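Recap from last week: sequence in, structure out.
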Amino acid sequence: MSSTHAHRVGIIGLGTVGRRFVDLFTADDRFDLVACWDASDTARGACEAPVVADADQVIAAADLVYIAVPPAAHGDYVRRCVAAGRAMLCEKPLGVDVADSRELTALVDSSGLAAAVNFVHGSAPAAVELGRRLANGDAGDITVADLRVHMPLWPRAWQAEATWLGAAAEGGWTREIGSHFVFCARRVLGGATLVAATVHRPDPTCAEDLVHARLDCAGVPMLITGTSGGAGPEIVEFIVRGTQRSFRIVDWYRLEVTNDDDVWTPVDLPAEPTPAVAAYRAQLDQIAAMLDGAAHTLPTFSDALAVQEIVEGILSAG
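Predicted structure tokens:
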């Protein structure tokens, strides 16, 4: 079934990602951004979309509520949306308390409401094509997967206002970056479980600055190696190696494959005006499909819970 009217959308949380979706929803005729709210006076004042007095007014006004606040607050707003019978798009990670997220997921599942979590690799062309090629056997037998992350500065300069990202309680790049690729690995490889992990923090209150973890992805070993601090370029690289071909996602949204000379070569994907914009447009396509009651590829709360269990398991090692 398809919609004959624009879906009324509200946003709770106007940080970096919330503001990105203000622009995305505003530019897409399938959505009508009707209400926004943030706890920060500054964030509310800078928003050019309609701003209301509190989060409950957002929920009352919208058909879909995008929850874009720090993860410890997700459960509160999700529960309010369920009580009001509203569809939800929740930012990742789902939460930081695994027991609470299990209760939350059971609540959402039993509600029957349209609900998804914003892992962009549920829709991004690079991840979708990677999954298709692996399923077709283009890699041959898959031997190993590898995620490499280096953040010269954490939080990154454009995240400086989100000071919570630098703290152990809710932040860290394993939750913010690693979770995206744990989700991607689960989807394209058929599952993932944590085998072992080592974590270092500058002090117990700070986000991690070193992670070394091993996962089992439906029989495929996956190594996660991440660091932060120190000069050099930012690195986010997810590799799946096979006996015939290897594939990698680099710079978040570009897919490459080894050629006959074992040289990385680009895979042709939708990339206009940029690969990132193409990925978020694909996410909007799937959000619209979900709201129209059609089949979609958005991550479920159960998907996000499985990722959270792995990520929090890693972080509990340090």
